[in-house]
Amino acid sequence: MALAEELESVAAAVERFAQEGEELVGVLAAEPASGERLYVCAFERGEERSWLVVDTEAAPLEDRARVREAVSIAAVCELAEENAGGGHLDELRSQLLTLRLTENPEGIEAAEEAALELESTLVPPPRVASPAYLDRVGMATMKLERALGDAQASPFAASMQAGMGSVEELSAEVERKYKAELSPKL
Asked: pTM (2 decimals)?
């Protein structure tokens, strides 16, 4: 089954968890470090949001650590995509092309190739958030940064580190507004 069909199937199955006036607004596929496919589901009623993480049978997870793991990898992959190539990969590729045509500095082809490789590494939604995907995005971004001469300091790594607070905030929100009973904190 294609991922889009899989997500539609999960969405149909989790609709039963929506409370009155609440609607399912998103389903993200995640394969945390365990490799198990899980689905992070967001529900909204006005400005209020609630959450549920389900397995492949659309059964709600109750294990707090597994829920955090699924939410975290989904959020970190989103963060990586937003920050890869400075967050404006199309603009960067256009600037590199202009630079090659006007000045043609040494190494410009390598930078263009690395930008293209990063662009092809980024999978448009829907996609599965996983450590392997995150690694591919990170490696392609590092290759681009090196081709651009950023071998010492990584703007991508700095952006990722700065965004980790948001990932933690999201995980905490999911725990607070979770639709099922979660196992106690350790």
From this structure: 0.92
